[in-house]
Amino acid sequence: MSLRQQLLLLQVAIVVLTIGVVGGVALQMQEAQIRDSYEERMVGVAQSVATLPAIVEAYEAPDPSAVIQPIAEVIREASGVTYVVVTDSEGIRYSHPNPERIGEMVSTDPSAPLSGHVYVGTQTGTLGESWRVKVPIFSGDEVIGSVSVGTLESTLREDLLDDLPQLLVWVLGAGLAGTLGAVYVQRLVWRRIYRMEPEEIASLREVRDAMLHGLGEGMVAVDEHGRIALANDQAHQMLDLPPDCVGRPAGDVLDAALLELLSTRGAGGDKLVLVGEQILFARVDRAVVDGRDVGSVLLLRDRTEVHALVRDLDGARDLTQALRAQAHEFANQLHVVSGLIELGRPDDALTFISRAVGSAAASRYESLPGVTDPAVAALMVAKSATAHERGVELLTDRDAEVEPDGTTDVVTVLGNLIDNAVDAAGTGGTVRVSLTRAGATAVVRVSDDGPGVPALERGRIFEPGVSTKRGRHARGIGLTLVRQVVDRRGGTVTVEDAEGGGACFVVTLPPPRIAATSQELEATR
Q1: Which residue, of 56, 234, 455, 524, has the fewest CB within 10 Å?
Q2: Rounded Cα gap, residues 67 and 55, in angstroms
């Protein structure tokens, strides 16, 4: 049975049950009202007869029934009751609708009214089962007889049946209205759930969860009130969202860069944003349901590794160009040697070869004894080679001192600062690197003799997407990563003018928290 049928049958059953109960209660109330109305009438008639002077005086007449019977019949016909029976103190009838019953003993117990009490109830007499009232007749303080006024139960039922059609009309009308309302409700619910059955909804929910949580991209849905409506597993991992983020305002759990993107509804298309130390491509699309804007959907793709590959590719291109230049130069040298040999001047050829080898040996990069971190030493050698091939002189203080701290933070800072400095210096320029220590804090100083950083730009160059470069090297990510590392380590980064012109970046990196804690534990032993 479909959900629509179940809803309709359930609601119709509720309507029928409710109307049945209400109709039964209304029928009982109507019956009680009819009975009360007859009781009030019968009590009034009985008391009127019992206090009528002609009735009381007739008890002293030789033939009381001759006086009482006509009066009782007139009153019975006028009041619309079934009977008015007057008895003496022994229960002998003085009046009855059937004159043949006059002079006989009443068929029901007359003790209640003859004892001075009023009786109201249903009894079965000579005329049948009736709803009756019995009151005493007093002569002074003495009970001299009783008056019994009654209406047949069949008459009460007839009156109730007379009102039943009207009641049935209302009951059937209410039932029809309730059924129509049930049909409307089931159709409304069916439309609200997109004309789907519960099994289809459950299957759709399972498929949706499987798709959302199986995506390699992060997805965050924000409703029209700015609250997080949905976040898949990748989004939790990328943005480090709290487990209870769903239902909370987006401003409480998302970074400022993502909030700015949400506020613009992704007008600029895909945007490169930096969240923590992750490089993400973010895109915002509108969420529209039935033509109504219900919020926004934020799509995230992690491009940290891609960015690193792009930087490596740029370096590989530079090295390739440098190797091509070296190959060309080496070919020229071979041509010189070949020419000297053909001219019969082998001694000059040997001298030329020695001079070329000695020059190459002299150009080897000297080691840095104070740099005990192998990753930093390898980086400096690689960057020196790259700078040399680009025509930039990279000078490193001979007193450079870097010790391993269990992280790659110094490599990240140095790599980005040196790349920026080499780009700024250009061919024929010079880049100077200083690596010192102030206690346990590492101090990195990188300067160049390029055009420098304008004073107005120094407060913005650490923001994501801001770069002073032009062309394909302009990404605005490197200095932002430096800022992220410095903030995480609790250090500082400043920009100032270099001595020979250009820019000088100074970074301080306190020891990482893990290393500091280990040193404190070691000191307490």
Answers
A1: 524
A2: 8
The residue type of 14 is I
Q: For the sheet containing 441-448, what is the strand order?
A: 393-396, 430-438, 441-448, 503-509, 492-497
**% of the chain with per-residue pLDDT over 90:** 17
CB 43 within 8 A of CB 132: no
pLDDT over 90 at 444, yes or no: yes
SS3 annotation, 438-482: ECCEEEEEEEECCCCCCHHHCCCCCCCCCCCCCCCCCCCCHHHHH
Nearest-CA neighbor of 403 among 515, 314, 327, 513? 515
Alpha-carbon span 134 to 152, nearest angstrom: 15
Q: Over the chain, what is the mean pLDDT? A: 81
What is the Cα–Cα distance from 47 to 138, expressed in whole angstroms? 11
Contacts of 283 (CB under 8 A, 6+ apart): 266, 269, 270, 271, 298, 299
* The model's pTM: 0.45
* Cα pseudo-dihedral 429, 435, 436, 439, rounded to 10: 140
Burial of 488 (0-12, 13-18, 19+ CB in 10 A): middle
Q: What is the pLDDT of residues 354-372, one digit of tens each?
A: 666 544 433 434 557 778 8
Residue 469's pLDDT is: 62
Task: Return the CA Rg of the chain.
Answer: 55
Comparing CA positions, the residue from 8, 52, 350 lying closest to residue 184 is 8
